[in-house]
Each structure stands twice: as C-alpha cells, then as structure tokens.
DNA sequence: TTGTGTGAATCCCTTCACAGCG
DNA sequence: CGCTGTGAAGGGATTCACACAA
C-alpha cells in the first residue's frame, strides 16, 4: 500500500467515512459497492471516491464496482486500524473520563492502557481495570506498556510540558484537547480537538446568515 | 459587518485562533498587533491574516497595525460570540456530562440551559442547577428557554430523530457527536465532532511515515 | 453495457507583490 | 519609512470526461 504523493487531509477524513460505510454495508449484507453508492453515503461525489482510492492503488473491477469486504480490509490497512494501538490518557478530568472506555475507540482498536493525572486526590483511584498514576510515572508507563498514542486532556498551561515529556518518552501521535498549538517535532502528528472553535463556526454561520442574506 | 462572498471554513477556524491570540495579548498588556505577530501565534502567514480579515472590512491602520481591543471586539461580533447563546444538551452520558459546565463554553457565552436524556434512571436527576428531562420535553424546553444551539451526544441510532425534532422546534445549529451524517435542512449548520476519525488520522500518519519514507 | 481509473480542465484557496495611507 | 489592503499569480484539490476493462 505504498503512498506515492502527499495525501490531502481531506482525503483521509473521507477514507474514514468510506470505511464506516463499508462496515454498514457489510452488516446489511451487501457484496459489492459502486463509487456512486459510497459517494452518497459519504456526502461526496463518485469521482471523488475514485480519486481518493486511486492514491493507494486499484481496488475495484471495471463495470462491477468494489468488493465490500476486500475494500474494507484495504482501508483498514491504509488507515492503520488493522491492529491494536496502546493509548495513554493524560488528564483524568471530565473529558478524560468521557474518553476512557469510549466504546467507539475500543471497536477501532484504540485501547487505553494507562491513566495519568496530577491531582493527588485522583492518583491511586481505580477506573475499571486501571489505576490512575501520578505524572512522574508517565515515562515508565509509556516504555513498559508500549504506548504509542496519547490523549492529552489537561489544562492549557500543562499541555506543552506533558506533550514534550510524552514525545521524549517515544510516543508517536497526540490527540490534543488543550486549546493551544503544541510545539512538537514534525514527525509527531497532532490532532487538535477544539470544541469552542466548532461552536464558533455554528454561531458564525447563524449570525452571518441572518445579516448577510 | 457585511459578508460579501462565500467565506471558506478554514478562514473561520483561523478567526477563532486570532480571537484567542488577541485575548492573550490583552492579558499581556499589548496595545497593538501586526499581522505578522498574529500570524506567528496562529501558525499561518501575515498575508493570510490580512486576507482573512479583509473579507469583513478594514480593521487596521497602515504603518501601525491593529488595535488589540478594537480587533478583538470586531472578531467577537463576526464570530457571533458577543452575546449569550442558550444551548440544550441532548444525551447525558459520558460525553454529555463532560460538556455540561465545560468551562471553555461558559467563557465564550455558550450556556447550557437544558438537559434531556432518554434513560428513565437519569431523568429527574439534578446536575448543578439543572434537572435532566425526558425526551418528550425537548420541544417545550427549546421554546420556553429560547434554545438556539443543540449539543447532540446520543448514540448514532437516536441522533437523526432527535436532530429532526430539535430542528422542527426551531433550533439553529447542531454540534453533533454521533458518527453519522445528519440530514437536516441546509439552513441549519452542523458541526461534526468525530474523535475516531481524528485517531485514524494519527494512525494513518504514523503508519504511512513508517512504510513510505 | 456498466462502472473504474485517470489525465485535463476547473475552481478555489493561498501566496505574492506592491500601491497607498498614516 | 512601516504595515495594511488587495489585485494578480500560483498551487492544490475537486470535477469532468472518456478510454478501457469486465
């Protein structure tokens, strides 16, 4: 599954949608799909579907479409979800607790294997099968448990420090809930979750619609 | 603040960053900023900052830059956060509870005024000052409390129905946590929060880096 | 005939470069 | 001078359209 060029982020987002659609189709008993069908379910166009897939190879049969199970497996490989990823949760506050045992993560193979929090009142508590560790343990947890991904759900002021420590300890990617731009080496991908920004996109759209047209 | 053309979504995201940067600057006691300074804080370019702002008017002084408090106020107006928005939370599960009283929402004027959940065991419980209502109450809550935005944090199978009911009851925008594409009238903006997709973007980036280069 | 894979054309966003104002 | 505001240029992503394989 070699990548030849630079893949746009929008393509990757769409691949996620296609994968979900294929899983739905499989449940519904579908054997094959056309790019047309995938396009409808993913809110895009047939040409876009074919272009997206073409970055990674040829998965369809002309005049026939794509085999559902085959394409699903290819997409799982492309997206890297054909295996289990060990995840550490940094920050056991409101968001952290919502994400721990988040069912959607489990089904995609993202498994939380460690929890860290700086609040002494929380350290030592048991969450399901896991125990909340103090921040000092971060490096050893990452090393010992083979953690590759980190969910960073701490206040903005603590985020940069924890990110740097996690990177130094060898993690490979960060899902960041803190409303700051993390400064990390370019080989460590960061995905920012910014709910305030999304709310602002809503109030912007509503406000402009009212005044503009 | 009239909008002349179609504004790209990327611009709106950047406006949110600029607003945050301006608030930081104000705390630091800055009086004026250049597009250069805003660009550095927002991880973009000076030309991009000026172009983004130019969609909405002329806010700077040539040779001088932008007055921090003035531009901040303009951005608040543009983004529609110069007022309070009443929000209803649909779904009082893990995610719902993390979002209720989410401090970052409060400071931007997004105020949760109603909670709804279909679980009889949850209905009637008190969360802070609010009481969890059954789904039947949705329409009357929206009407009586002047709810304009909805945070939809229910399982996928319930999401479409609740979205339709909320829209019919008059809400104007949806922050959607369910992993489906909601079908709503085009005048109702929807922002999707898809954490699995963001995790997949990470595993994709990590996997490809390993195999590609 | 059907529906993929793909170069070409189009569209839109970003970047450039500079005129113009303070 | 310094820095904004903006038309023009450039680059990337989407859409088009069709050759081709089943």
Largest interface: A-B, 60 and 58 residues
End-to-end Cα distance of chain A: 47 Å
Give me the number of helical elements of chain A.
Answer: 9
| General shape of chain A | globular
> How would you classify the helix and strand content of chain A by structural class?
alpha/beta
- Major beta sheet summary of chain A: 7 strands, mixed
Mean pLDDT of chain A: 95
What spatial order of strands do you see in the largest sheet of chain A?
A: 6-7-5-4-8-9-10
The low-confidence parts of chain A are: none
Number of beta-strand segments of chain A: 10
Describe how the helices and strands are arranged.
2 copies of one chain form a homodimer.
Chain A: H1 9-27, E1 32-33, H2 35-42, H3 46-54, E2 60-61, E3 65-67, H4 68-79, E4 85-90, H5 94-99, H6 103-107, E5 110-116, E6 126-127, E7 130-133, H7 138-145, E8 149-152, H8 156-168, E9 173-176, E10 190-192, H9 195-212
Parallel strand pairs in A: 4-5, 4-8, 5-7, 8-9, 9-10
Antiparallel strand pairs in A: 1-3, 2-3, 6-7
Chain A binds a DNA duplex (22 and 22 nucleotides) through α3 and β2.
